[in-house]
Amino acid sequence: MIELMDVRKVFNAGSPSEYSAINGVSLHIPENKVTVLKGPSGSGKTTLLSIVGCMSRPSAGRVKLRDREITSLPERFLTDIRRKTFGFIFQQPNLIKGLSVLENVMLPAYPLGEKRSQLKLKAHNGLQELNLANKAASKVEWLSGGEVQRVSIVRALINDPHIIIADEPTAHLDTKLSHRFMEIIENFKAHGKTVIITSHDYRRSALLPTLERYLVSCLGPLYS
Amino acid sequence: MSSDLILIHEADYRKLFGIGDQFVTDVIVTVNNPSEIPTVAKKIKKRLHDSRPIIQDEILRTYDSIFNWRGGMMIVIFSAAVLAFVIFAWDKASGLSAGERREIGILKAVGWETSDVIQMKFWEGAMVSLSAYLGGVIFAYIHVFFLGSAVFEPALKGWSSLYPRFTLTPFINAEQLTTLFLLTVVPYTVATIVPIWRAATIDPDTAMRHTGG
Question: Among A54, A51, A62, A55, which residue's Cα sits nearest to residue A26?
Fold first, then answer.
């Protein structure tokens, strides 16, 4: 489904602070499976996810999504792919301060032009699913770390994406909520979705006993 | 003729106020030698204690001071306000805060197009500047026409320098309002858009990374 061929990402190219975040990664991410990218902190997992999710372009190499080369697509096409295909759960929750929980959850759906009433209902249902319905009107800066992470999960799912990209999704969740999140992931898989997760903590990824795992170290040679 | 002025014949005036022919309210004294004017004024005051001699130069100086240095004072205040606006607009135009860049990165990451972000920020900037503009205009209208310009009145009209008291008739000058709109709302909105456009055209990952957050 997603194929990376000899992908490199260099930051601050040409300056003294130039560094290579990922160096020649080739990877095949299959459809309808849960893929876990495992590696130590700073190994380039987040960078790799941002390239997979069309949030940044590789410095070299090629990226294919469903056999379509997307490496050099113009920005507006990448945005279109991003909004229709991916749901992101970031390492940092990346919610917009000053907006309510409900408004943050609805953000990805605004550009699609859905009716506001339907959108609200969908967002409320999502919040209900993760026990956040009573926080819908709260400002996000008032939430605890775990609540923020759950809001970020609901936001990622609002557009019913085909591919869920989650960067250390359980980092701020307690064991109970981590298991709940994994149930959601399992549910996705059951509905034919593709999930890509990064984790630096093997014990966390071990929370997926029934799911296929493709463990990848971004620093060294790939293995699965 | 107007709300504070009636023109009538002298005879009618005397009849209305019961002033006999031997009395007058104002006398104009012409002095051939200008250097003797202050002396003549002093002598009149000495002989007629109830009189108030006003020299033509004094009247000119009073009006000069009202419409020159007091006007100048208002220009200084106005200039300070304009300078504050320019600094504020420049600050908006020269770059975005880390939080704003991060916000743009998030919006793009969750599927907003560059044009969506610019459009949203345009309306945000337009709403801020338009609210400030309308608020300012309404406040100024009420202040000048209904409260008699209470804040600036002492500076503009002087301390009992102008008599009788007068109130301004409310009116709206479309040309002034348009000029003010073009000089405030439009530049501020443009100043808001430029850095947003610059930030919104980069990758969402880059926008979120360089924020320290």
Answer: A62
C-alpha span between A131 and B160 (Å, rounded)? 71
pTM of the predicted protein model = 0.69
Assign B204 a pLDDT band (cuts: 50, 70, 90).
confident
Gap between the Cα atoms of A163 and A187, Å rounded: 13
Domain count, chain A: 1
Using the beta-carbon criterion (under 8 Å), do A94 and B109 form an inter-chain contact? yes
Scanning chain A, the segments in alpha helix (DSSP H) are: 45-52, 75-85, 101-106, 116-129, 145-157, 175-190, 202-205
In a domain, A143, yes or no: yes
> Over the stretch B107-140, which tens digit does the pLDDT of each residue have?
988 888 888 888 888 898 889 899 999 999 999 9
A175-190 and A145-157 are packed helices; what angle lies between their axes, rounded to 10 degrees? 10
Contacts with B213 from chain A: Cβ below 8 Å: 92
Strand partners, A8: A23, A60
Contacts of B124 in chain A (CB under 8 A): none
| Rounded average pLDDT over B58-63 | 81
Contact B99 A97 (CB under 8 A): yes
Task: Tokens for B30, please give them.
Answer: 């012409």
Domain that holds residue A70: 2-205
In a domain, A220, yes or no: no
In a domain, A215, yes or no: no
- What the block records as the tokens of B132 is 């400030």
Residue A66 C-alpha, separation from nearest chain B C-alpha, in angstroms: 19
The answer to whether B203 contacts A55, with C-beta atoms less than 8 Å apart, is yes
- Residue B146 is given by DSSP the state I
What CATH number does residue A179 fall under?
Answer: 3.40.50.300
Count CB neighbours of A34 within 10 A: 24
For A97, the closest chain B residue by CA position comes to B103
Q: Give the number of A-B residue pairs with CB atoms closer than 8 Å.
A: 60
**Nearest alpha-carbon partner for A197 in A4, A20, A46:** A46
CA atoms of B57 and B70, how far apart (whole Å): 18
Q: Is residue A27 part of a domain?
A: yes
Q: How far is A145 from chain B (nearest CA, A)?
A: 15
Q: How far is CA B50 from CA A83, B14, B45, in A?
A: 89, 20, 8
